[in-house]
Model the fold of this input.
Amino acid sequence: MTLIYALAIAAYVGCGLYMMLSRHAVRMILGLTLLTNGAIFLIFLSGRVGTTTPPVIPQGAEALAADAANALPQALVLTAIVIGFALTSFAVALVLEAHRSLGTLDVREMRDAERLGAPDPSPATSVKTHG
Amino acid sequence: MADASTLLVLWPVLIPIATAALTALLWSSPVAQRRVGLASLALLLVASLALTMEVMHEGVIAKQFGAWDAPFGISFVADPLSAAMIAISGILAFAVGIFALGDIKERHERAGFHPLFHGLMAGVNGAFLTGDIFNLYVWFEVMLITTLGLLVVQRGKAQIDGALKYAAMNLFGTILFLIAVALLYGATGTLNMADLARILPQMEMSPGLTASALLFLAAFGIKAGVFPLFFWLPASYHTAPIAIAALFAGLLTKVGVYAAFRVFTLMFEMEGGALREIVAVVAAMTMITGVFGAAVQWNVRRILSFHIISQIGYMLMGLAIATPVAIAGAVFYIVHHIIVKANLFLLAGAIKHAAGTDDLRKAGGLLRSHPWLAVLFLIPALSLAGLPPLSGFWAKFLVIDASLREEVWWLAAVALAVGALTLFSMSKIWMEAFWKKPALVRATPRTVPVAFVVPIALLGAVTLTIGLFADPFVEYARTATAVLVDPTDYIAAVFPGDAPVRTVETEVPVIAIEGAVE
Done:
């Protein structure tokens, strides 16, 4: 079970890394999402999957049952999902804005930051965007 | 627990968070946001200095959230290193806040400059104070999202492009951080840094722990902008408005360096394995590539962006040598560098305002038209290059001296050579912007606003103070290093009752607390 789980994480991270290396900005975001999910699964696995006994102290008892599930990874995963969602939304909005104002999604063609104050002025340098 | 001294640990985070919320509520009135923001920055400065005084008198202070004792709740810990970082970022934020009055336009404010600025300060201070490794990840993300917001408050093409490159690399970095945390938790069963400091020395380095340590190094390396992971920095920093770039230059990379120092002194040992060698080579390459990158640039902001990278190398040098003397030198270096680097960016703003351009080839003649600006430029510029008696001299002296003592000759030689090349870059700015005759002489010289001069003079005064009265600062750096090298005080502050070391199986849920700090 753990081995299958670990292999699944490896597949996620591998696909994510491959997609991140793409020059297409949208593929990059998809890669980031896959990588985030891989990390989230890894947190789950590091909390030891297996037992399903809820981590609730029964009435009258003082401590948790010995075989109770570990609840901490769920808290960590929830936090990571919320953060991952926020950052992915921002990244999507940023890429959308890039598509609108730069007219391309190919990161090789995005050279506007590089042109700003470049040591070797090309004709395109005359386009002033800073103020 | 909730007496005044432990509450002091909270103010540096609570004040910016409350201000971010308040300025967001005042969205429609930039004037009100400006006033609230400046008042809050003054308050933050007072709170930061108060915390530092308290730590100097009382030693390490810890605060547990929600009255959950460590390691179950999230701890906030102020040791001398974090207190110094908090104080110096308080000073910097205040200076940048004043500078922003002259530099930040109303359209930037309408795009959310004030809430993002204070949100960033909350993230930075939270990262300095937290004593929980997962919580550190959360503060890194707070910093990341506010930084991205600040990069695009000016919605030009270059800004969008820069932000996209910044986002790609830094999002990747935080995922590496998260994976490192997951592996560490899987191996140790705890996330509290003081608890990890007790457990990790007793454990053998398993493959999982080694992977975790290397991933931490890579994640903090991306954040700090070290070779070969720095390319996002010169691709984005020069596109932001100057006040924002100064804040980034002063604080963001240094949070990465701080986190590396925290993790690799408190939790992982630098000894053993190839970690020391890796960090030493990375430090040398960071110094060299940064300074050569700067040499070919003609734009003041781009020169300074590359110099951030080169200076990070000196701090890593302290971590690579890892003797107490070297770490003390690096701590001194970080404090000196935050002030000097931010000041140089503010000066780049003043130069651009006075000369009408930040391209050095087109600028000139500022020595005649703005002589006092030339003096104010010389203080941080010569300090960055490491000339006595300024703060940079002592900083470089301490780290190079430490490497000579350990007989790491090649690293010391690289550091000295890079210092000379830094002087070359600074004199290039001096010659081109201040000394040479301008291409066209203006009939009426452009005046530099008071809001620019005050923070530049303030930070210059701090640099002079550190340089001329270096003794107490070096002494403080030694105290901070003593706590880093021997974490007994740190652990004792987090575990006042000295709780027994737990085993991996007895985990107790902390959902309520983790969720509350999202």
In short: Residues 72-102 of chain A form the longest helix (31 residues). Confidence is low (pLDDT under 50) at residues 123-131 of chain A. Chain A touches chain B through 54 residues (CB under 8 Å).
